[in-house]
């Protein structure tokens, strides 16, 4: 009888968890909740109109995703961004997308090739016009199209989680780094390898591309990336 009575409560908490989890995750990713920010349970519950139970369930999930850290005597804190962790995330991202690109090259699916060529043209147009927002939207679609077309759920899920961390520094990166006519050409080697069915070439080209992105991002840190003081930023202190 106890189990039967408990089930409605569990079922009721699930929709609340599904509400609060993406709200908190998005706020962390877009830096509305910046790195190092203490998450007040009472404030969040009042703002979202929920109890502490679904909130704590959401915080546990965010902790497993690496977006929240439980600090002794403090509670939940938005995980700070450190250069070593960011380097590791980019390294993982490069590996995942290289695997995806190799699988896509092996398949040589005409529809996938058509889509990435169309996206590439959008990027070239945005680059010529100096439109950062449109350029980076198209860039995201390019990479996401390749990852989805690979048909590997494990890669897709790991990529999604990794991108949550990359997006945390994305806005500052996109604003600070130059957007010249050559920017859209970064994908040309990847596209050529996919069209040719060159599995090894696609793997190497994608890996090299994302390693270059990592070097650019980590080599030019912008104030505010890593938290309120940026005491862990490269060259700081």
Automatic annotation (TrEMBL):
Q: What Gene Ontology molecular-function terms does this entry list?
A: DNA binding; DNA-binding transcription factor activity
Task: Enumerate the SUPFAM superfamilies for this protein.
Answer: GntR ligand-binding domain-like, Winged helix' DNA-binding domain
Work out whether the entry's keyword set contains Lipoprotein: no
Keywords of the record, alphabetical order, are: DNA-binding, Transcription, Transcription regulation
InterPro entries in UniProt: GntR_C, TF_FadR/GntR_C, Tscrpt_reg_HTH_GntR, WH-like_DNA-bd_sf, WH_DNA-bd_sf
For the HTH gntR-type domain, which residue ranges apply?
14-81
Which named protein is this? Answer: GntR family transcriptional regulator
